[in-house]
Amino acid sequence: MRSKIVLSLFVGAALGVVGVVAQQYETEAPAGFTTPTLGENPGSQSTSNGIAEPSGDTFALDQAQFERRHDPSTGLGPVFNATSCAECHQNGVTGAASQITEVRAGHRAANGNFVNPTILINGGANSISGRSIVNDRSICPQAQEHVPDSENVRTLRAVLNTLGDGFVESVDDRTLLAIAANQPAQSDGMIHGEAIQVPILEAPGHTGVGRFGWKDQDPTILSFAGDAYLNEMGVTNRLKPTDVTSVCKVSSDLEDTPDNLGLADIDHFAQFIRGTQVPPRDAVVAATPDAIAGQHLFATVGCATCHVPTMTTDRAGTKINGGAYTVPEALGNKVIHPYGDFLLHDVGTGDGIVQVGPQDTANKLRTPALWGLRIKSRFMHDLGSLTLGDAIERHAGEAQGVTSRFNGLSREDQQDLITFLRSL
């Protein structure tokens, strides 16, 4: 734990006195896999990070909503990938990453720019356009999507971890911008992460640095929740109020309406994610000489330039997200160790898709945070790497120098670095 006293001086105009009016201390964010998935009494054995709940709400209720399965009568579809948030975000505990992937597709125009596909459904009588996602499932055969042969930009995207994302949301935009600005000097000009400004859906007219999703397409957790509810489950909500098609639709928009507490589902989802603890390290492995040596090598070969080990969240009470959210006590002034920079990079594995960023982001992907890595069995954005060694070897582009330095290590040193990764 480290601490910093933040001193604020005031001058009493009448009395001419100067004094300390505020003290805030940095502490380590609570860590743990503390959201077990239970068939009965969801959330009853879960522990939050201490976040204050809205009146009448509980962390268990937030988790239960995150795990609740939908069907067409409750807004599922017409096209979708999962029937609940936890169907994708679950491995060991609710909210974690998983082995599930989604499909993205499109094509390049004559000028080289990425263009979203137009997907014909219902025997060609209807179409879905304006997005790169192609859903795997539908509530009826007529609505089923298929990738056309014309869409030759195709990729799979892995589900990302959401545990600890409340702390990530509470990191000041300026912290991420400073990391991006410093990377070229740290890497002889090779590494240069891109931060993109993304609309904050809950604060119209405001933008923030994107940090959630493989393309940094969402700047806040509530924006992410609304986006995912529509695009992954087909449930319309106040942030995404229109279904992509009405074929076979049996419910009426808006499908996500406030409950008796005045909270919509997306509010419960956001509250659950913001209430999760950060993924913990394996303390036993982390304390071994091999892991300790590997942690040093992780920094010296340059992995830590993008996989940033430590950040600090903004002060409690700070208004963020275009003024729509205030950093709570549970999330403010917290030291986190995500091992990520939440910036877009070209490391040679780009998927060619453009979402909310400029066209130069087509072959860039967000650096995935490595916390929680040890509960993953497959790696990289497409889950195409089955070992950590394979994942490292796939790094090229901006990361080519780092990969070369890794390859120059002795076999023993390489194994030490991988042992360190297995402690995360």
Short description:
The chain is built from 11 helices and 21 strands. By secondary structure, the chain is an alpha+beta fold.
Number of strands: 21
| Shape, per Cα inertia axes | globular
CATH class of the largest domain: Mainly Alpha
Based on secondary structure, the structural category is alpha+beta
Percent helix range: 10-25%
Q: Which quaternary structure do these chains form?
A: single chain
Explain how this protein is built.
With 424 residues, the chain is an alpha+beta fold. It folds into 2 domains: 59-161 and 214-275, no CATH class; 173-196 and 280-421, Orthogonal Bundle (Cytochrome Bc1 Complex, Chain D, domain 2). 23% of the residues lie in helices and 14% in strands. The protein has 11 helices and 21 strands. The strands form 9 sheets. Strands 7, 8, 11 and 13 form a 4-stranded antiparallel β-sheet that branches. It has a 3-stranded mixed β-sheet with strand order 3-19-16, with no helix packed on it. It has a two-stranded antiparallel sheet with strand order 1-2. Helix 1 crosses helix 6 (265-275), helix 5 (221-233) crosses helix 6 (265-275) and helix 8 (289-300) packs across helix 11 (411-421). The model is unreliable at 1-22 (pLDDT under 50).
Set out the fold topology:
Layout: E1 9-11, E2 18-20, E3 27-28, H1 59-67, E4 79-80, H2 85-88, E5 90-91, E6 93-94, E7 101-108, E8 114-115, E9 119-121, E10 126-128, E11 133-134, E12 137-138, E13 153-158, H3 165-169, H4 173-186, E14 197-199, E15 207-209, H5 221-233, H6 265-275, H7 283-286, H8 289-300, E16 311-312, E17 319-320, E18 325-326, E19 334-336, E20 344-345, E21 365-366, H9 388-394, H10 400-407, H11 411-421
Parallel strand pairs: 3-19
Antiparallel strand pairs: 1-2, 4-12, 5-6, 7-8, 7-11, 7-13, 9-10, 14-15, 16-19, 17-18, 20-21
Helix pairs in contact: 1-6, 5-6, 8-11
